[in-house]
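User: Sequence recovery, please. Input:
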């Protein structure tokens, strides 16, 4: 087993269970900003809108790989974290990537460059709610 993957899964589960948000939120918002701006630039400035589907596919591929790593390495703890935190947050991020690719041309020119940043911040806020509210309720019940 690759030590990077083992450390990723262990650190992710540890940070979620101990409600340490800063490392999780920082990496999540940075990856959202990068993906959303790359997809926005390709969709807005070129006529190759369907080229963005490659990035959406890669995002979904990484979602599957990281989910399997979380569940495979950390068994029950990883399964709970993946089902209640990681998979919903990654699916929302994936949906935002698709929405930016589809609807970025219809946005007013004055605000179009701030839309990916605003969507990334909103996605990070939902991610924080998943960790701090939903996961705490799950931990109390279980």
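Assistant: Recovered sequence (142 residues):
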């Amino acid at each position: 087993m690759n030590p990077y993957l083992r450390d990723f899964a262990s650190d992710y589960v540890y940070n979620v269970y101990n409600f340490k948000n800063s490392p999780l939120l920082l990496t999540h918002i940075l990856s959202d900003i990068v993906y959303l701006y790359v997809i926005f630039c390709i969709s807005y400035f070129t006529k190759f809108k369907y080229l963005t589907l490659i990035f959406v596919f890669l995002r979904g591929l990484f979602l599957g790989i990281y989910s399997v790593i979380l569940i495979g390495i950390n068994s029950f703890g990883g399964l709970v974290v993946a089902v209640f935190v990681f998979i919903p947050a990654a699916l929302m991020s994936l949906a935002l990537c698709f929405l930016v690719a589809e609807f970025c041309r219809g946005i007013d020119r004055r605000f179009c460059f701030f839309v990916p940043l605003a969507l990334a911040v909103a996605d990070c806020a939902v991610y924080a709610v998943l960790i701090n509210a939903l996961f705490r309720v799950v931990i109390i019940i279980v």
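The helical segments are 3-17, 21-45, 52-103, 115-141.
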